């Protein structure tokens, strides 16, 4: 049988978003836990929406609507909530949450994209023995790879230059462009939240990984699992005039506090104590070093002069 090799980006796109793609057939929440699944995260997003004076909150890549469902009771009915998602509208989503496949032309308020950019497929490249940077081709059925044509990219030269044969990178140009397109629609604040790296510490062999069933698994491009790569967050921030801040610091600015409640509360109001303890546990999870706290927020306030992409 002859190998059928295509560009990594094409194979990745089909694996996640083709007719039987992972995100069309699987709920992210069934395979991995994100900040959107932690209630205290919604409280911080609601606080930000209030600070922005948002008429609308748009959740781009909204999974099964977990963040929006948690936001609904925290924000007045005058705040419109919109999920933008390639997967179908969840059957049990409350009627007062809108659901669409396309970003609205204008967003008056707050745009949030939690763990969206890492799932935007990239061209995977490798530096060849002859010193050229070449596109990696892959047979989606077997994972067999070969090097294809030279991939000449201004983005790679600037943001992720490869110096040694065998080194790999993911070309983040399309991600920067996708986020810039989203931010350009916003009158207010846009936040992309993801795991990522900076120019000084790019991993030498790229970062493509797979997750399924709650753990990291072998990468496969057959739609059975998530396929993700860390985000070059400094490039994204540069594309949109954004501020880069670690999640633990962003949440602290929004009042998320991992401190334990005073023990006296356990005597005075046991139920309140248990609730406060649970919130402290969630805050600790969202701000943990080596975990969600290390995530980057790319924050763009489009109402600030000079911040427009
Ligand atoms: C890792 S999940 C994150 C889900 C949710 N934001 C969370 O934090 O739990 C990424 C989601 O983005 C969605 N997605 C990816 N590209 C998209 C696009 N262009 N438009 C809408 N949704 C998209 C996927 O279907 C998937 O549900």
UniProtKB/TrEMBL annotation:
The keyword Transferase applies. Keywords: Methyltransferase, Transferase. Gene3D superfamilies: 3.40.50.12710. One of its GO terms (molecular function) is methyltransferase activity. GO terms for biological process: methylation. This is SAM-dependent methyltransferase. It comes from Aeromicrobium fastidiosum.
